[in-house]
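We were asked to recover a plausible sequence for a given structure. The inputs and outputs are reproduced exactly as logged, with field labels preserved.

PROBLEM: sequence recovery
POSITIONS: 378
GIVEN STRUCTURE:
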């Protein structure tokens, strides 16, 4: 009797929670379906109508599920980022962001440039599924994070442009005046660091291992790739690093074995890395997730884990000779989701525009009401 009463109470609590969320959404939609802010000359009312029309077309489309309902970037005829319930669908939002900008304008039937972003109830820009904004490259969309990027050789600098242009990272390299020693001297200044194929000598590795572990333990976010140290079996941040003995295609061929919260790799997907390196889990690595494993020996090619109060992502290589999609785009999208970086306010200060329309629509993200803001300008 007691168990039955407990189950009834739990069901009632779930129903009540859904009811409250539903009423909250309905109330927001009823009170403020959308609002406009315009910055436009009075002399051209026709232009105002066109800008408003574009803003309405874009926002109205995004509030729906799109067509077909389970659309992909290959099949999309109408872009929507919900399931017709005002709740953001993470997959659809990511697919929308991946579409070429000019194609989205055609799908929206828009004439003018646009960008969308999200704010909380106080009006502060927020990160939604890794995105601070989507749309025209003329808008200044940036993340509020102190980051750094290190690469040893220009041939292994696949994330350099992303780190520099999207995260405004400080760049370190053996090819510049700021090398690995400089990065280690400044490591406490950063919240996110990418170290790409550094190939450190054993002495440099040992001299700086503690600094890297301290950074990660103190809530740092660290992404590593390639050959970390020339010697084999060296341990750092809860794992040991190795280079595979063979480097033929069969040695470098791997398979996605698990879904990940940040990488959108499909289970069973095949990846052939240009170079084959792997990590072995040790006791200090917590919540270790095997994402991709090599086919011939089952060693871990891509993994993610916690170390202290921080987290680490490891990739055998950022360069692949076979992958069903754009590997670098997948990695950079994962970075934006994984890092949960704060968003700087969207700015059009570097864009020369004559007239601007701002439209706000209400959505729900993680059971919280948020605003989707649409800028359209001439």
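RECOVERED SEQUENCE:
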């Amino acid at each position: 009797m007691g168990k039955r009463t407990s189950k009834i109470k739990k069901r009632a609590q779930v129903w009540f929670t859904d009811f409250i969320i539903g009423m909250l959404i309905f109330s927001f939609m009823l009170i403020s379906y959308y609002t406009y802010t315009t910055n436009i000359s009075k002399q051209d009312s026709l232009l105002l109508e066109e800008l408003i029309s574009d803003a309405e077309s874009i926002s109205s489309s995004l509030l729906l599920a799109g067509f077909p309902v389970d659309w992909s970037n290959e099949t999309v005829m109408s872009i929507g980022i919900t399931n017709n319930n005002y709740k953001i669908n993470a997959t659809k939002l990511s697919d929308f962001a991946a579409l070429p900008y000019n194609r989205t304008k055609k799908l929206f039937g828009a004439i003018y440039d646009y960008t969308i972003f999200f704010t909380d109830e106080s009006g502060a820009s927020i990160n939604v599924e890794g995105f601070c904004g989507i749309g025209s490259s003329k808008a200044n969309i940036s993340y509020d994070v102190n980051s750094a990027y290190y690469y040893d050789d220009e041939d292994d600098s696949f994330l350099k442009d992303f780190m520099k242009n999207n995260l405004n990272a400080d760049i370190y390299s053996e090819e510049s005046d700021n090398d690995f020693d400089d990065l280690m001297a400044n490591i406490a200044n950063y919240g996110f660091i990418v170290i790409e194929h550094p190939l450190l000598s054993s002495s440099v590795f040992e001299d700086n291992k503690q600094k890297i572990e301290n950074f990660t333990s103190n809530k740092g976010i660290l992404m590593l790739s390639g050959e970390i140290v020339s010697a084999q079996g060296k341990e750092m941040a809860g794992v040991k690093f190795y280079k595979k003995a063979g480097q033929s295609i069969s040695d470098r061929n791997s398979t996605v074995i698990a879904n990940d919260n940040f990488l959108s790799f499909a289970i069973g997907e095949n990846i052939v890395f240009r170079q084959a390196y792997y990590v072995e889990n040790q006791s200090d690595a917590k919540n270790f997730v095997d994402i991709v494993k090599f086919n011939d020996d089952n060693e871990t090619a891509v993994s993610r884990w916690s170390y202290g109060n921080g987290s680490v992502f490891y990739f055998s290589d950022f360069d692949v000779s076979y992958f069903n999609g754009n590997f670098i785009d997948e990695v950079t999208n994962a970075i934006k989701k994984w890092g949960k970086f704060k968003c700087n306010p969207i700015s059009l200060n570097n864009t020369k525009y004559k007239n601007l329309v701002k439209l706000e629509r209400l959505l729900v993200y993680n059971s919280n009401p948020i605003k989707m803001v649409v800028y359209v300008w001439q």
